[in-house]
TrEMBL record:
Belongs to the metallophosphoesterase superfamily. Purple acid phosphatase family. It catalyses: a phosphate monoester + H2O = an alcohol + phosphate. Residues 52-138 form the Purple acid phosphatase N-terminal domain. This is Purple acid phosphatase. It comes from Asparagus officinalis. Keywords: Glycoprotein, Hydrolase, Signal.
Length: 442
């Protein structure tokens, strides 16, 4: 009974907050989505109160990783023991813990422990809080090739499970998520079931996330937003000189990756904008020939879903990214797949970015089927199906991108393309002056 009341309260709050325009989702009325698949149900399993749950890992500065897990009790230590052979823990690190409450929900103890320095491209065995079970992770390589799995708008349905299974079958070094993780939407226990659902993959390879609109969970006058996301999915923002978990950057094997926030201020006078400039100034294309950006609401989208929602951010930040020579921008939000030609300011441009929308991880809202016609010149491939992407950066000039559609539950490769880097096609040399100019203006 009490539980039902909480659901009712959460449902009402959801209605109220969308009613007052917290989410710009009005265009969702314009198209009809096919049937989503069933939400997964999670049987309640009694656990020992200090047993580590929802283990996931992320990069935390050069040669370091952050291990995150949750325990029911508050006295379990925030300690990770690790080593390169099974059962032999030659190192250990101590970290911190946090927790939060949200209306009538209280989270477990959320532990964050940074381990390292770690060897590159190496399997480590580890355990959390001084107790079994043992987990395994692999650190990313320090040189090319490096492979990223990409899937946005995951949720926790049978489609999500299919997508995760397909990702689990591929060989990759880390996972990039352009926002919308659990679709908890105010029902905090769904963050816990999401954590349990992704643990098999997320405890083994770094999951690097940025926030989507479903992470916001803002309540007028009560909750300022992103409380669960920030507590549970702590990313290396401090390590990258950012003051917010909502945007940060990291480097891996010759790739500089910038995670931007579509749901925090991004105008020219914002902290995010100032941080982005500083971060771009630090990029050295000899050290990291590839420059990637992730964010949630796409800037190039010919689907009727969420049409134009990324426009303001694009107007503010696209000139910076263009001057810096961003190779590929990956977005989510629209529940479909779309890939663009290199483009800048809506015009084909060999020195612009390739834009990829990959918000098709499998959430309960279903697919976005309706596209604008005629197809814009920059749009090369668009399709409404669930799936995931893989980006294999082969060397400093070549990367192979493939989109794997969840067709008949088989991971069919239905779009694939070689992408040449801006370093390789000569654009970066030409952009140095432009970048200096734009970075100098404050
Ligand atoms: C980079 O990889 C591509 C694709 O495999 C290959 O054709 C090219 O020769 C490589 N370049 C260098 C410098 O190794
Ligand atoms: Fe979204």
């Amino acid at each position: 009974m009490k539980l039902q009341l909480i659901f009712l309260a959460a449902a009402i709050l959801t209605l109220i907050s969308s009613g007052i325009g917290i989410e710009a989702g009005s265009s969702e009325e314009d198209y009809i989505r096919p049937k989503p698949r069933k939400a997964l149900s999670f049987p309640w399993k009694p656990k020992h109160s200090s047993e580590p749950q929802q283990v996931h890992i992320s990069l935390a500065g050069e040669k370091h990783m952050r291990i995150t897990w949750i325990t029911d009790d508050t006295s379990s230590p925030s300690i990770v023991e690790y080593g390169t052979s099974h059962g032999k823990y030659t190192s250990s690190s101590q970290g911190e813990s946090t927790s939060y409450s949200y209306l009538m929900y209280s989270s477990g103890t959320i532990h964050h422990v940074v381990i390292g320095p770690l060897e590159d491209d190496t399997v480590y065995f580890y355990r959390c809080g001084g107790q079994d079970p043992e987990f395994q992770l692999k650190t990313p390589p320090s040189r090319f090739p490096v492979t990223f799995a990409v899937a946005g708008d995951l949720g926790q349905t049978e489609w999500t499970k299919t997508t995760l299974d397909h990702i689990g079958q591929c060989k990759y070094d880390l996972h990039l998520i352009p926002g919308d993780l659990s679709y908890a939407d105010y029902q905090q226990h769904l963050w816990d079931s999401f954590g349990a659902l992704v643990q098999p993959l997320a405890s083994a390879r770094a999951w690097m996330t940025t926030e989507g609109n479903h992470e916001k969970e803002k309540i007028f006058l009560l909750k300022s937003g992103f409380q669960a996301y920030n507590a549970r999915w702590k990313m290396p923002y401090e390590e990258s000189g950012s003051s917010s978990n909502l945007y940060y950057s990291f480097e891996v094997a010759g790739v500089h990756v910038i995670m931007l926030g579509s749901y925090t201020d991004y105008d020219e006078y914002s902290e995010q904008y100032a941080w982005l400039k500083e971060d771009l100034a630090k990029v050295d294309r000899e050290r990291t020939p590839w420059l990637l950006v992730l964010l949630h609401a796409p800037w190039y989208n010919s689907n009727w879903a969420h049409q134009g929602e990324g426009n303001r951010m694009k107007a503010s930040m696209e000139p910076l990214l263009y001057a810096a020579g961003v190779d590929i921008l990956l977005a989510g939000h629209v529940h479909a797949y779309e890939r663009s030609e290199r483009v800048y300011n809506d015009i084909l441009d060999p020195c612009g970015a390739v834009h990829i929308t990959i918000g098709d991880g499998g959430n309960r809202e279903g697919l976005a089927h309706w596209y604008r016609n005629p197809k814009p010149q920059w749009s090369i491939f668009r399709e409404a199906s669930f799936g995931h992407g893989e980006l294999k950066i082969v060397n400093e000039t070549h990367a192979f991108w493939s989109w794997h559609r969840n067709d008949d539950d088989e991971p069919v490769k239905s779009d694939q393309v070689w992408i040449n880097s801006l370093v390789g096609n000569g654009c970066i040399v030409g952009k140095k002056h432009e970048l200096r100019k734009i970075l100098a203006v404050l």
